[in-house]
Amino acid sequence: MAISELLSSVLATGIFSLPLGLTQPNLPGTEIKVGAPARKGWVIYTVRPGDTLSQIASRYRVDARAIMYSSGLQSAVLRPGQELRIPLVEEINNETRLPPGVRAYIVRNGDTVQSIARRFDLTILGLVSANPGLQSLDRLDVGSTLYIPTGEPGLLLQLKKGETIHDLAQRFGLSVTEVAKANGLDSPTDVRAGDMVLLPRVQARATYQRLLQIQEAERRAREEEARRLAEQRRKQEEARQKQLAEQRRLQAQSRARLQQQTQSQPRLRPANAVVAAAGYRWPISNFTITTYFGRRGVFQRFHTGIDLAAPAGTPVYAARAGQIDTAGWSRYGYGLHVIINHGGAQETLYAHMSRIVVRPGQWVDRGDLIGYVGSTGWSTGPHLHFEVRVGGAARNPLAYLP
Q: Kind and range of the H or E element at 224?
């Protein structure tokens, strides 16, 4: 039975019944009358970070359930800044009596139920029986108190107000004599409310089984959470691998297209030995194509011609006969450039030259000298930018050249 359930029962009826897990098999529980909350006053305590109910109860030497009762708590979970009413009772000024075969142990960092049981040569059931208020077999609050039976094992209970040794003996099927002997009492009246009483040979089996069930449920919950996190990581890794694979596929396609373009369009061209059927010839000799017509990248501008790399000063010739339309400096990055009108709405443009030897209005034949290769305007090195325009629109020069 949870502490909140016990308190609810007390609040409703004024009767506190021990859980069946604290009785021997086949013996019914015994109802015990409990008094009203302490009327001698309270300590008002503000919860600090790291505080637990068991630590506070141990510090003020009161039952944690009394703090819950006085403070109107429904659970043992505390939050920083919360105010607690800790009842002041006459008994807290006196030392709580422990049976001669029991010692108090303060839980330290790293302690577990299993490690404490091994340290004091106890079974888990024996340790639970001495501490029937345990809430978990896996979690202990640092600073809380555990009771360790060093002699005869048994069930350790705190004597309630109005309760006697005779009541406990009768409830658990023991004689008053053996209870008194186990607790080192000369007289059954040598105990008072708040003293710890050892009931020899009685074990909290039902409480132990409940804690085992809680432990198993918590283990399954941890395993389920671990599986969920592992599945989440697996899906994230799958998504990452798919993304990487798609990136590699796109990169491979890009390399293949570039290789195919390079192989189908030789970079080195011979001297002007051949004239295309369209009447065009290459404007320079012994060059390397460094940039082709078309889009050069996702974020780069469309390249409206081809770039022919050659040493500065290389002669530039008219690719086709026509009239010089423009010869001079460009405001659009072409530097020194020439535009020839070939008729039929066809033009050619020659850009980035170092020197021009023609003038607007002049007629030239195919192969006539019009200037020399340079790096004027928006240029990163000596080359000729060559364009073919039809109806004012740029076309791929390779479609018109031999």
A: helix 205-264
8 A C-beta contact, residue 335 and residue 374: yes
> Is 86 within 8 Å of 67 (Cβ atoms)?
yes
Whole-structure pTM value: 0.37
The CATH code for residues 102-207 is 3.10.350.10
* Beta strand spans in 36-143 (E): 42-46, 83-87, 102-106
Please write the tens of the pLDDT for every residue from 61-79.
788 888 888 888 888 889 8
CB 52 within 8 A of CB 68: no
Beta-strand ranges (E) seen in 65-152 are 83-87, 102-106, 145-149
What is the tens place of the pLDDT at every residue in 216-260?
888 888 888 889 999 999 999 999 999 888 888 888 887 777 777
- Show the tokens assigned to 187: 């007289």
* Structural domain spans, the chain: 41-88, 102-207, 288-399
Residue among 75, 61, 87, 82 nearest 6 (CA): 75
Confidence class of residue 34 from pLDDT cuts 50, 70 and 90? very low
Report how far residue 155's alpha carbon sits from residue 393's, in angstroms, rounded to the nearest whole number. 100
Equal CATH topology for 102-207 and 288-399: no
- Per-residue pLDDT tens for 88-123? 754 434 467 888 888 889 888 888 889 998 989 888
CA atoms within 13 A on the CB side of 155: 26
Q: Rounded to an integer, what distance in angstroms lies between the CA atom of residue 86 and that of residue 47?
A: 12
CATH architecture of 41-88: Roll (3.10)
Q: What angle do CA 20, 21, 26 make, to 5 degrees?
A: 55
Average pLDDT, the chain: 81
What integer is the mean pLDDT of 182-197? 83
Is there a contact between 182 and 156 (Cβ–Cβ < 8 Å)? no
Q: What is the 8-class DSSP label of residue 300?
A: S
Q: How far apart are CA 51 and CA 32, in angstroms?
A: 31
Q: Say which CATH class 288-399 falls into.
A: mainly beta
Structure tokens that stand for 121 in this block: 């040569």
Contacts of 14 (CB under 8 A, 6+ apart): 33, 34
